[in-house]
C-alpha cells in the first residue's frame, strides 16, 4: 500500500476496538490487543497489496493478537475467583456480558461478522474453518444473544 | 426486521481512541516504525500540517493545499508508514508559536530537505538567506541562484516549497512590489509579511 497508514487508524480504529472488546471484554486486554494489532499492521503496511481488503486484514491480525492476549491471560491466571470487570462507560453492561459469555468461536464469529461487517468467507479466513461453519457459529451466537437479551421479539 | 443483535453495544468513546492513538505513536517510534510523524497545529494563518522524519521537519502544508493530499504525497515520496504523533512535533509547534507571537525571527529546527530536488531545491535552499522583515524579488533570487533568466522557474520553486513559513518563500515578491503568488493564499502571505513588519 502506498496510502498513508494513519488513514487506516482513522477509518478502522473504532471498529477494531469494538471487535477486541467483544472478544476480550471491555478492559485493558482489549486495549492491548488493539495496540498490538495496529503496530503489526503498521509494520506490514508497505507490503500489503493495493487490492487487499484492509478491514478483513485488520480483523485477521486482531484475531491473532487477541489469541495472544488470551494465552497471556491464561498463563498469569490465578486460581482465585474472577474479579468482575467494571462496566464500560455508559455501556449497558448486560450486552457486553452476554457477548463475553458466548463460546469462543461464536463470540468471534459474531464480532467479526456483525461488528466488523466481514462476509463469512473473510470471517473463516481470519479464524479458520469453513465459511459455512463461520456462518453457523455466528447464527448460533446471535440466536443465543437474542434469547438472553430478549431482543427480536 | 429484527433488531441488530449487537445494536445496544455503545460506540467507542472518542477520548479512548485518542489515548490509544497516542500510545500507538509512542510504540511505533520505539519500534522505529514512525517513518513520517505528523500533527496539525493551529496558527493565525489557519491550521498547519507539520510532518517530520527521523532527520527533521519534512513538510509544512496550509489547509488550502489540502492536508490529506500532503499526507498522500508524503506516503508516496517518503514512506506509507505515516502516523499522527503530536508529541514528535512539540519543538516545531513551540517555534511556530514563538514566531507567530513575534518572539522568534528565525527557525532553529533540523530540516529534512529530501522533497527539495534539482534547481527548485537550490532555490529553496537560498530562501533562508532572506532576513526576517525583508523581501526580495523573483528576479533577484534567480540571479542569486546563478540563473538570472530563470525567473519563472524561481517562481515555481517558491510555489512548490515543501516547508513554507519555516523556509520563507513568503519573502519573495514581484519586482514591482506586488505580492506574486503563494501556496497558502495571498491573505496568508500578506499576514506573514505584516507580522514581520517589513516595508
Name of the CATH class of chain A:
Mainly Alpha
Biggest sheet descriptor of chain B: 4 strands, mixed
First CA to last CA of chain B: what distance? 71 Å
Largest interface, C-beta within 8 A: A-B, 39 and 35 residues
Please state the oligomeric state of the protein chains shown. Answer: heterodimer
Please, how many domains of chain A? 1
Strand content of chain B: 5-15%
Task: Outline the structure in words.
The complex is a heterodimer of chains A (153) and B (199). By secondary structure, chain A is mostly helical. Chain A has a single domain, classed as Butyryl-CoA Dehydrogenase, subunit A, domain 3 (Up-down Bundle), CATH 1.20.140. Chain A contains 7 helices and no strands. The longest helix of chain A has 23 residues. Chain A is globular and about 45 Å long. Chain A starts with 5 loop residues before the first helix and ends with a helix. In chain A, 44% of the residues are buried. The model of chain A has no long low-confidence stretch (mean pLDDT 87). Chain B has 199 residues and is α/β, with parallel strands linked by helices. Chain B has 2 domains: 87 residues, 2-Layer Sandwich (Double Stranded RNA Binding Domain), CATH 3.30.160; 79 residues, Arc Repressor Mutant, subunit A (Orthogonal Bundle), CATH 1.10.10. Helix content of chain B is 38%, strand content 12%. Chain B is built from 7 helices and 6 strands. In chain B, strands 3-2-1-4 form a 4-stranded mixed sheet. In chain B, strands 5-6 form a two-stranded parallel sheet. In chain B, helix 4 packs across helix 6 and helix 5 crosses helix 6. The longest helix of chain B has 17 residues. Chain B starts with 13 loop residues before the first helix and ends with a helix.
Amino acid at each position: 500500500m502506498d496510502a498513508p497508514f494513519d488513514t487506516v487508524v482513522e477509518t478502522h480504529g473504532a471498529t477494531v476496538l469494538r471487535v477486541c472488546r467483544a472478544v476480550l471484554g471491555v478492559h485493558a486486554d482489549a486495549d492491548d490487543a488493539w495496540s498490538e494489532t495496529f503496530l503489526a499492521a503498521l509494520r506490514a503496511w508497505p507490503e500489503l497489496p493495493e487490492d487487499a481488503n484492509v478491514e478483513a486484514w485488520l480483523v485477521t491480525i486482531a484475531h491473532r493478537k487477541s489469541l495472544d492476549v488470551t494465552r497471556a491471560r491464561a498463563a498469569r491466571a490465578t486460581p482465585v475467583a474472577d474479579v468482575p470487570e467494571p462496566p464500560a462507560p455508559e455501556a449497558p453492561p448486560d450486552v457486553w456480558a452476554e457477548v463475553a459469555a458466548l463460546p469462543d468461536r461464536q463470540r468471534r464469529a459474531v464480532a467479526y461478522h456483525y461488528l466488523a461487517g466481514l462476509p463469512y468467507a473473510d470471517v473463516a479466513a481470519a479464524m479458520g474453518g469453513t465459511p459455512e461453519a463461520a456462518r453457523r457459529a455466528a447464527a448460533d451466537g446471535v440466536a443465543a444473544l437474542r434469547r438472553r437479551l430478549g431482543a427480536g421479539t | 426486521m429484527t433488531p441488530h443483535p449487537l445494536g445496544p453495544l455503545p460506540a467507542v468513546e472518542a477520548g479512548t481512541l485518542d489515548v490509544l492513538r497516542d500510545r500507538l505513536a509512542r510504540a511505533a517510534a520505539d519500534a522505529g516504525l514512525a517513518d513520517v510523524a505528523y500533527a496539525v497545529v493551529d496558527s493565525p494563518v489557519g491550521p498547519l500540517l507539520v510532518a517530520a522524519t527521523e532527520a527533521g521537519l519534512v513538510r509544512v502544508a496550509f489547509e488550502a493545499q489540502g492536508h490529506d493530499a500532503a499526507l498522500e504525497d508524503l506516503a508516496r515520496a517518503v514512506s506509507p508508514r505515516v502516523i499522527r504523533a503530536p508529541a514528535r512535533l512539540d519543538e516545531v509547534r513551540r517555534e511556530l508559536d514563538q514566531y507567530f507571537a513575534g518572539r522568534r525571527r528565525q527557525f532553529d529546527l533540523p530540516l529534512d530537505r529530501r522533497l527539495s530536488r534539482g534547481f527548485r531545491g537550490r532555490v529553496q535552499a537560498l530562501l533562508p538567506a532572506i532576513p526576517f522583515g525583508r523581501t526580495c524579488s523573483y528576479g533577484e533570487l534567480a540571479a542569486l541562484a546563478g540563473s538570472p533568466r530563470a525567473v519563472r522557474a524561481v517562481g515555481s520553486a517558491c510555489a512548490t516549497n515543501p516547508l513554507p513559513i519555516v523556509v520563507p518563500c513568503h519573502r519573495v515578491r514581484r519586482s514591482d512590489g506586488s505580492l506574486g503568488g503563494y501556496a497558502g493564499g495571498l491573505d496568508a502571505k500578506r499576514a506573514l509579511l505584516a507580522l514581520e513588519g517589513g516595508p
